[in-house]
Design goal:
- It contains eight helices and 13 strands.
- By secondary structure, it is α/β, with parallel strands linked by helices.
- The protein folds into three domains: 6-57, no CATH class; 83-135, no CATH class; 149-273, Rossmann fold (3-Layer(aba) Sandwich).
- A hairpin with a 6-residue loop joins strand 9 (154-159) and strand 10.
- The chain is globular.
- Residues 1-36 and 267-279 have low confidence and may be disordered.
């Protein structure tokens, strides 16, 4: 749905009328320190290839359907408040119960679900969660759902910028792609504890690469695909040694990484020998 196109004339002496050609505005008024803007009900419209055009007067209140409410994890405001209060008063018990829903190869120490210090006078500022526990995020995101009979359920809906450019991935398909990517990373030497920079647009391959890193125990860092080579070089350098850049082969030509390598080298030289950065 396109954002509302609003035409109005604002004056501090007279409350203006506001009209919108699309989008939704509730009946009523918006009040600002020196201006009161009257708002009237308008019709909402949406048009997209493959879908019907919708044009209807929007109601004052939307009530969730009963089937939706029955499947919700939090069914009422009172339940939410109860959960919130427990998360503040008993964080270990609250998060421990939630963590029980996941797969754990080794369980954590139940007495130390969370241990934190935020007072510098008392030592190092840090927070430790589930000390002693051992699991794999990729397994929890994928394998356990497939093993529980949800392999054919949709895991990802992807929609591109162009109309009609979209796709879906089931949990089984996603698991297969993640395993292929993880095996490739392993074949080029990526191992547990390594740092991987992921530089690509918002494609299905992005979460696939992230989950592949998690499957190997590698640490990933996603860099926005619109950043320049210089900005990317700084982020790779900032992640210290042992970093491997990962790009999408069909979207980023090889010379990009070659240029990146030279930029990274120059950046390191400047940082090492500049009188402003020398320690």
């Amino acid at each position: 749905m396109h954002p509302a196109v609003v035409q109005t004339a604002i004056s501090t002496r007279k409350a203006p009328k506001l009209a919108a050609s699309s989008g939704f505005l509730n009946k009523g008024s918006l009040t600002f320190p020196s201006v009161k803007i009257n708002v009237r009900r308008v019709r909402v419209g949406s048009a997209r290839q493959g879908h019907k055009v919708i044009a209807a007067s929007a109601p004052e209140t939307w009530m969730a359907p009963d089937d939706f409410k029955s499947a919700a994890l939090v069914s009422s405001r009172e339940q939410y408040q109860e959960m919130y209060d427990r998360s503040i008063n008993d964080p270990g018990g609250f998060w421990g119960d939630i963590a029980e829903e996941f797969f754990w190869e080794t369980k954590w120490d139940p007495e130390n679900v969370v241990k934190s210090n935020f007072n510098m006078d008392d030592g190092k500022v840090e927070a430790t969660w589930f000390a002693g526990g051992k699991t794999n995020i990729a397994y929890n995101c994928l394998d356990r759902h497939v093993e529980n009979g949800k392999g054919d359920d949709i895991a990802f809906y992807w929609e591109g910028n162009a109309i009609g450019e979209d796709s879906t991935l089931t949990f089984s398909q996603l698991k297969d792609e993640v395993c292929k990517t993880a095996n490739y990373l392993k074949s080029v030497g990526v191992k547990k504890g390594d740092r991987v920079i992921i530089y690509m647009p918002m494609l299905n391959e992005l979460p696939i690469a992230m989950l592949a890193c998690a499957r190997l125990g590698a640490i990933h860092s996603v860099v926005f695909g619109g950043f320049s080579a210089e900005a990317l070089a700084q982020r790779i350098s900032g992640s210290l040694s042992g970093t491997r850049p990962l790009r999408h082969p069909s979207r980023w030509p090889p010379f990009t990484l070659l240029r990146l390598a030279s930029l990274l080298y120059c950046y390191d030289l400047e940082r090492r020998f500049s009188p402003h950065t020398r320690s």
